[in-house]
From TrEMBL:
Organism: Thermomonospora umbrina
Family matches, as SUPFAM superfamilies: Sigma2 domain of RNA polymerase sigma factors, Sigma3 and sigma4 domains of RNA polymerase sigma factors
InterPro entries cross-referenced by the UniProt entry: RNA_pol_sigma-70-like (IPR039425), RNA_pol_sigma-70_dom (IPR014284), RNA_pol_sigma-E_actinobac (IPR014325), RNA_pol_sigma70_r2 (IPR007627), RNA_pol_sigma70_r4_t2 (IPR013249), RNA_pol_sigma_r2 (IPR013325), RNA_pol_sigma_r3/r4-like (IPR013324), WH-like_DNA-bd_sf (IPR036388)
Name of the featured protein: RNA polymerase sigma-70 factor (Sigma-E family)
GO biological process: DNA-templated transcription initiation
Length: 165
């Protein structure tokens, strides 16, 4: 029995959903918003599944869709991204040193969206400069300059009592 295109899509998304969610969280710093970004990205992936499934690297294709959804959303008005609720969303952090994680999270949140995307792709997703440039739709030189500026800002933000990390 042949596997249908929908079955292939479902299997792929189920196997990569947690990874996509983590990347989205690193980009936007909010679990609820990360879920929305992933939902939009996997919807776009489904619409273009015929082309996506033929990609040489399906993870790179999905990651590129997710990053472009994030950057596109950054250009919209704040009122489209804000939701007011009466309860605090449930969050979790799976790290050993909570203080370091919170400092890093705040430092990442302070970066410009494109710089944050560059850092996440280069250091969390472990992409090369060229692969990051492809995912962001820019030149390798832009990736290098954005990475340099982002790392400088992170170092400045994460300095403790005059001792750089």
């Amino acid at each position: 029995m042949a596997v249908s295109s929908d079955d292939e899509y479902t299997a792929y998304v189920m196997s990569r959903l947690l990874w996509l969610r983590r990347v989205a969280y690193l980009l936007c710093q909010d679990w609820s918003r990360a879920d929305d970004l992933v939902q939009t990205a996997i919807t776009r992936l489904y619409v273009n599944w015929r082309r996506a499934s033929r990609a040489d690297n399906l993870d790179a294709y999905a990651r590129t869709v997710l990053v472009r959804v994030f950057l596109s959303e950054q250009r919209t008005g704040w009122w489209k991204r804000v939701s007011v609720t009466s309860t605090t969303p449930e969050t979790f952090i799976d790290v050993v040193d909570l203080d370091v994680a919170l400092d890093l999270e705040q430092a990442l949140a302070a970066l410009a969206p494109r710089q944050r995307a560059t850092v996440v792709l280069r250091y969390y997703c472990d992409l090369s400069v060229e692969d990051t440039a492809t995912a962001l739709g820019c030149s390798p030189g832009t990736v290098k300059s954005q990475t340099s500026r982002a790392l400088t800002a992170l170092r400045r933000t994460l300095e403790f009592e005059g001792n750089p990390l």
